[in-house]
Amino acid sequence: MLDAPSSVQTPDEILVRRARERDAVAREELFQRYREDAYRVAYRLLGHEQDALDVVQEALIKAFLGLGDFDGRSGFRYWLLRIVGNTALDWGRRRIRRTILNIGNGRSDLPEPAFHDDPARGLHQQDLRRVLDKALDHLSPKIRTTFVLFAELGLSYKEIAETQDIPIGTVMSRINAAREKLQQNLDWEKLKGLE
Question: Do the beta carbons of residue 155 and residue 123 sit within 8 Å?
Fold first, then answer.
């Protein structure tokens, strides 16, 4: 005898329709379903844990308030990730302005994210993350966002094109440009470390 699946997931389209009708359970389900992806995009774009959490919260509020604008051409996930990416870029610009205004007041760079693993592994990961974050900082916001969607979330070229509303060829060229620029910057960082 066949057993029924233990958990059948409600399709996004139904949850979106219910969320538009102010169904709190549907909104919670959409939040739970995509919060991790949203956080990963925000964190990789900003490199700061608290800012990423704030961006996810702001982006989800924007998404739920703007559900009437969601046309369903791309899936809810892609639409939400576009909002997260744009919100993160806005936060990054605000942070740069704040940093410029705070020059000379003794504030240090942004704190590192917390690691909950083995302490030695965490230190190694922090070192790698710092080097990679420095290299990512050299990318333009558009190229960085495209690369993060590809490398961090594992989205396909087609999915990235839908998320960013750009042609697949543009996705491919941005990823290639990101790889080249990252390789140049990572090689430079490695050479500096040998001094």
Answer: no
Segments forming the whole domain that contains residue 138: 115-195
**pTM for this entry:** 0.63
**Does 188 reside within a domain?**
yes
Indicate the number of domains in the chain.
2
What six digits make up the tokens of 107? 């504030």
CA distance 189 to 109: 18
Last residue of a domain, one of 50, 78, 112: 112
Same domain, 16 and 54: yes
**pLDDT, tens digit, 9 for 90 and up, residues 4-57:** 455 678 899 999 999 999 899 999 999 999 999 999 999 988 888 889 999 999
